[in-house]
Q: What sequence folds into this?
């Protein structure tokens, strides 16, 4: 109960709940269309789902007002990280997120009528480009974190390997050696991801989110069902990390 009270008191948490509901509407609408939404009742339900999804999207934009300042603050803090790769990735990610949120604020002003005559499509495309850049940098950071963890796990495995097993490995043929190395690397990767839930959750969340700007920018084509599922999955993963902060990947 205490965790839920802390969760509901955060604007980011409320935005994630609205996002989960928004993509649940997209997924439900896709399922309804596939099951035959041409009848009168089904078409009415589908229309209501689309209207609800639009209102949820607008509500999320309202909750994100002022988020650019927070992202810029994150970029300023990440400039002091000792690791140069993390410093570059996190700073670039925060800057792109700040630009994405700034464009999102402009879109909110256009949709509410504060900025009449706004070129909505142009600002939407600009917003999704910054969002895509941020996600690509986030995935690069995830890959770097996994590489560091693999190197540590590999070093520990080599220290624990007996001289007899090393001699046996060297005596095997080149093809067997390569196959065994690939198997060991795959096992090591799965072990690293299993032992480090924050890295795994961050990787899954960014991978799910990546499809959304790719679809909106026309760089790939997917069905509304896939888009709704990915958006809902990434939203639920974000909610989990807010409820349990130790699962959030930290610098």
A:
């Amino acid at each position: 109960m205490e965790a839920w009270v802390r969760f509901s008191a955060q604007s980011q948490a409320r935005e994630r709940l609205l996002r989960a509901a928004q993509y649940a509407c997209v997924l439900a609408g896709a399922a309804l269309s596939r099951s035959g939404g041409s009848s009168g009742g089904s078409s009415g339900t589908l229309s209501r789902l689309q209207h609800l999804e639009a209102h949820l999207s607008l509500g999320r934009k309202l909750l994100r007002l002022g988020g650019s300042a927070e992202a810029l603050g994150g970029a300023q803090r990440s400039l002091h990280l000792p690791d140069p790769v993390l410093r570059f990735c996190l700073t670039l990610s925060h800057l792109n997120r700040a630009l994405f949120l700034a464009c999102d604020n402009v879109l909110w002003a256009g949709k509410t009528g504060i900025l009449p005559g706004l070129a909505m499509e142009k600002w939407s495309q600009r917003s999704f480009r910054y969002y895509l850049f941020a996600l690509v940098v986030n995935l690069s950071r995830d890959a770097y974190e996994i590489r560091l963890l693999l190197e540590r796990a590999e070093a520990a495995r080599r220290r624990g390997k007996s001289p007899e097993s090393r001699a046996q490995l060297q005596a095997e043929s080149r093809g067997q050696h390569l196959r065994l190395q690939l198997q060991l690397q795959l096992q090591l990767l799965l072990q690293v991801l299993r032992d480090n839930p924050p890295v795994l959750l961050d990787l899954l969340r960014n991978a799910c989110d990546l499809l959304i700007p790719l679809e909106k920018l026309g760089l790939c084509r997917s069905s509304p069902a896939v888009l709704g599922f990915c958006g809902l999955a990434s939203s639920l993963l974000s909610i989990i990390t807010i409820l349990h902060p130790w699962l959030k990947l930290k610098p």
User: Anything to note?
Assistant: The two ends are 29 Å apart (CA to CA).
